[in-house]
Every structure is written in structure tokens, then in C-alpha cells.
Amino acid sequence: MKHRSLYIKILSALLVFGAWEIAGRIPISYAFPTFLESMSALARMTFDGSIFVAYAETLKPLVLGVAISTVFGIGLGLWIGLSERFEWLFSPIFIVMQAAPLAALIPLLVMAYGIGLTSKVFVVCIMAMPVIVLSTSSAVRNTPASMKEMAQSFLAKDYQVVLKVVIPAASPVIFSGLRLGVSAGFIGAILSELKITPTGVGDIITYSRSIADYPSMYAAIFSIILLAVLFLNLLEKIENTLFKGNDRGYVTD
Amino acid sequence: MVMSQTDAAFSNAEPIEQDVAVSVRGVSKNYGAVEALKDMSLEFPRGQLTSLLGPSGCGKTTLLKIIAGLLKPDTGEITVNGKAVVGPGPNRAFVFQDFALLPWANVMRNVAFGLELRGVAKSEREDKAAKYINDVGLQGFEKAYPHELSGGMRQRVGLARALSVDAKVLLLDEPFSAVDEQTRRKFQEDLLALVANENKTFIFVTHSIEEAVYVSDQIAILLPRPSRVSEIIRPSSFRLKGAENIRRDPEYLDIVDEIWASLRDYVE
Ligand SMILES: Nc1ncnc2c1ncn2[C@@H]1O[C@H](COP(=O)(O)OP(=O)(O)O)[C@@H](O)[C@H]1O
Ligand SMILES: [Mg+2]
After folding, report:
1. Which of A63, A73, B54, B104 has a 20 to 30 A CA-CA distance from B61?
2. What pLDDT does A250 receive?
3. Per the domain annotation, does B216 fall within a domain?
4. What is the predicted ipTM?
5. Domain that holds residue B204
6. Residue A252's pLDDT is what?
7. Is a pLDDT exceeding 80 seen at residue B14?
8. Are residues B136 and B223 located together in one domain of the fold?
9. Contact B147 A168 (CB under 8 A)
10. pLDDT (mean) for B45-68
11. Is the dihedral of CA B149, B206, B59, B111 positive or negative?
């Protein structure tokens, strides 16, 4: 089973790359390089080290923003989900944040925090946090009442109900919110580098487009997607080892 | 333990001394406009099994949760061994209709969960849990997860969990309603053995007349709108004739008929 899903992944990757290669060869646009051209540009950037320099820059706001969003997002989500009274106050804020057009907020952020790291971290957080908060709070709210009641009847203290019932029960939804949040964080990191100041991977994309070096531009885009996919897979692995029982389905009947 | 208040009404039914383990006095409970319980009073003799029997919606679960301390009554008082109930306590354990198992925990952890919450060390609680897993016939399934078990096995886990905290009062809310008929019969026999062997007081909610008559020392018939105890029945003679003969006993059949006669008006 495991092997088969791996084969399917490889096969679908081959199909996508094959289609890319063919589309690049036709070509559908003079600005669209082939897969192999892009990969050789990626290899070049890897060997001259420029891609690593770029990522050292891009990962700063990304890692910081994702870490902040994870800690505060889950914390806030738990708090909102557990408190009866504050949901009406906080949920709308995050719903608005989730819906707000980020590009419109960026000038405001730049005015308030300048063009440095702070603004970029903010962009990542604005992208990543709402979905984490909202999915955590709704997961907490949807903990089966009978399980909480069971714990109480066996003398669980309030913190034990939270730690031993509410959080494990909510963890699959929290983790799926985390996955969505992290993907959004990647988008935020690149967006901030394209819209605030061109640094890191965003700089490669902007610069290579300006000199019409499209293979490098696509190589940079490809690398960030690859990184995101790898990171999400890692997150899934963590989830599966942390909450082993949860991928075994719920007892419903 | 604490008291030995003898109730005259029950004194001739059983030779052993009968005191009251749990007593419910003047309990009312409303859910908004719904009167779930109204001025309910009832006593549960120690060491015996009392059934709460009645059509659904008559407040059986509500009463059981109030005894468990999970719900607060609007008026009235519950005492367990003479002490007023203010919340869940170590002298009561609950078996839930929907099992309420933790899906991410295996059988061992589920059974030991009550002990885990009490801070009992892992090796000690697992020893204890292993004993009760054996007692309910689930040996070999310690590592299985709830979704891998049948309904009957899940309820055995729920039962073992309640037994392992060693509470003197067991509260069972329609524990067999979600298992198939054959399993249910086996459970009923096991329950009789449990009542005979463990020195515990059982409060057993059911909506099945046959089940109530089969397993009970005392049956409280609850009627809805307003919710009240309409009758208390104490089967006497067939209980001693052995589990396999009960269903053929004339008294068993008479009591079943009698209860049906008083309940049939309340069934839509
Ligand atoms: N949480 C609740 N909120 C509102 N009404 C409830 C609630 N729980 C029970 N009830 C109502 O109270 C009555 C008694 O319910 P319950 O104790 O569950 O009865 P039973 O267990 O005998 O079926 C029913 O009419 C039911 O609809
Ligand atoms: Mg009920």
C-alpha cells in the first residue's frame, strides 16, 4: 500500500513535469521555459550557492511568522474555543483578517513598521494565523460533549479535560488548520518579498524577470513550491506520530 | 459503611440487612420550559440492582446524571452513603449509553483512564486495568483501538473502566441498548453475576421491560409528563432459581405483563 502511493506520487509528478516540458517546447509563451531549462537553472543556482543565500533571507520571516502563528494561533484558538463569552468578540476579527485583501494592507504595514523584517513577519502572520485560530477554536468547540462528561464523571480536573480530551479530540482539525496556515504562510513570505522589498527568493523572481531570465524565475518558484510540499509532508509525519490513534477514525456508532 | 438506616418497606424482601446507598429526595430539574424531573424521591438499597424503567424522555438519563453529579438539580438533594452530592465523586462510576471511549486511546488506556485522571502511577493502573480487562473477557485486546471492536466489546471496555476505579455505586445508562440481542442477553447474565459477586450498588437505566425484570432486585417505574415514580416493584422468588430459568418463571412473566399494562397508556 505504502509503495503504491509512492508510485502514484512519482507518476503524477512525471506527468506534470512532462506536460511542463512539452508546454515549454511548443512554446505556449516566450516567457515560459521548459522543465529541463528551469531545472538546469536551479542546478546552477544550487552550485553557485545563490539559492541558499536567498533562502537564508526568505526563511527568516517565514519561519518566524509561521512559528508565531502556530504558537499564538493555537493558543488563541484554544482560548476562544474554551471560553463561552469571547467568541463573538474574537472570531469576527479573524474572519475579517482571513477575508481581507492582503495587498491592500501591505502599504499600511509598511507605513507602520517600515520595510524591514517586522513587516514581512506581519504579512506571514496575517496569512497564516486566521485559519489556524479559526480551525482550532471550532475544533475545540466541537469536542463531543459525551467525552467531556465522561472525563468529568471520572473526576477529571478542568485542565485534565483540556489536556486529555479536548486537545487530542481537536488535534486532527488543528493540524489540518496548521497545514493550511503554513501553506498560506509560504504565500505570505513570497508576497512580502515581491511587494515590500525584493529580498531572498522574491528577489530572484523579480530580478530574473526583469532581465528576462525566465528559467531562473521558474526555478525559484519551483523551489519554493517544493519546499512547501516537503514541509507539509513533514507536518503530516509529526501529526501521525504525535496522535497515533487519530488516524484510526472516530468511534461513531 | 457510614450508616445503616433500615427501610421498613424493604425489610421482608431479602434476608440480609438492607440499608440505603443512594437516596434521592424531592429532586426537580427543568431544561428551560421542559420539566424533566418533578419532585422525584427514590431510594436505592445497598448491594442491589435498581432499574429505572420508563419510556424515553421521562428523565431517566437526567436523574442518573444528577446522581453522578454531572448535573445540578434545581431543587432537592441526593445523598450517597448519607453524604450530599455536590459533584462527581470517587464513590460513583458511570457507564455511558454511547460508551464514551477515547478513540485515540487503546483498550488498556481507556480502561485505565479513570485511574490516570486520579494520578495513579502507570504500572499500577495498568495492572489494575489488566485485571478488569480479563474480568470482562477482553484479554488479548489490550492494544486494540475502539474502532476495531464491536459494539458489545466497546461497552465491555466502558464497563471495565467503571469497575477499575472501584466505586461503590455503578450508574449504567442504557448500557446495552447499542449492542445486538445475543450480546445483550450475555451481558444481562454477566450483570447478574456481577451484582452477586461485587459488593456494589447498581443503578441501571433501561427502557426494556424484559431486561429490567430480568436483572433487577428493584424496579422503579418512571412515567413522563410530569415525570414521577409511579410504582416500585421488587421481584422476589425467581431470582434464586438460576439465570437460565428466569425467563420461564411465572412470576417473571406476570411482572412483565403488569409493567406493560401500566406503561402502555404512555406510549404514543
Ligand atoms: N440538555 C437538554 N436540554 C433540553 N432538554 C433536555 C436536555 N436533556 C434532556 N432534555 C429533555 O428532558 C426530558 C428528559 O430527558 P432524558 O433525561 O434524556 O430522558 P430519558 O433518558 O428518560 O430518555 C426530555 O423531554 C428531553 O427532551
Ligand atoms: Mg436516556
Report:
1. B104
2. 45
3. yes
4. 0.87
5. 1-91+168-228
6. 40
7. no
8. no
9. no
10. 93
11. negative
Q: How many residues does chain B have?
A: 268
B136 & B157 share domain: yes
Mean pLDDT score, A61-73: 95
Which band of pLDDT confidence, cut at 50, 70 and 90, is reported for residue A246? low
Alpha carbon distance A167, A83 (integer Å): 14
Which secondary structure element, helix H or strand E, spans residue B230, and what is its range? strand B228-233
Q: Are residues B147 and B27 in the same domain?
A: no
pLDDT at residue B5 tops 90: no
Judge contact between A97 and A125, C-beta under 8 A: no
- Domains of chain A (ranges, CATH numbers): 39-247 (1.10.3720.10)
Q: Is B10's pLDDT higher than 50?
A: no
CB A246: neighbour CB atoms within 10 A?
19
DSSP code for A166 = I
Task: Examine the domain organization and report whether B183 and B80 are in the same domain.
Answer: yes
SS3 B22: strand
Determine if residue B201 is left, alpha or beta; phi over 0 gives left, psi from -120 to 50 gives alpha, anything else beta. Answer: beta
What are the two backbone dihedrals, phi and then psi, of residue B167, each rounded to the nearest 5 degrees?
Answer: -85, 150
Which residues of A sit within 8 Å Cβ distance of B? Answer: 144, 146-147, 149-157, 160, 164-165, 168-169, 243-246, 248-251, 253
B74 with B176, same domain? Answer: yes
Indicate the number of domains in chain B. Answer: 2
One-letter amino acid of B93: A
Question: pLDDT for B96-143, tens place per residue?
Answer: 999 999 999 999 999 999 999 999 999 999 999 999 999 999 999 999
Q: Is residue B235 part of a domain?
A: no
Q: Return the pLDDT at B219.
A: 94
Q: Does B263 touch chain A (CB under 8 A)?
A: no
- The verdict on the CB of residue B206 being under 6 Å from ligand 1 is no
Output the CA torsion B2→B5→B6→B9 (10° steps).
-130
3-state secondary structure (DSSP) of residue B263: helix
What integer pLDDT is reported at residue A2 of this predicted model? 62
Say whether B69 and A243 touch across the interface (CB within 8 A): no
Residue B252 lies in a domain: no
| Contact indicator for A98, A77 with CB cutoff of 8 Å | no
Residue carrying C-alpha cell 475544533: A139
In angstroms, the Cα distances linking B27 to A132, B36, B73 are 45, 10, 6
pLDDT of residue B228: 81
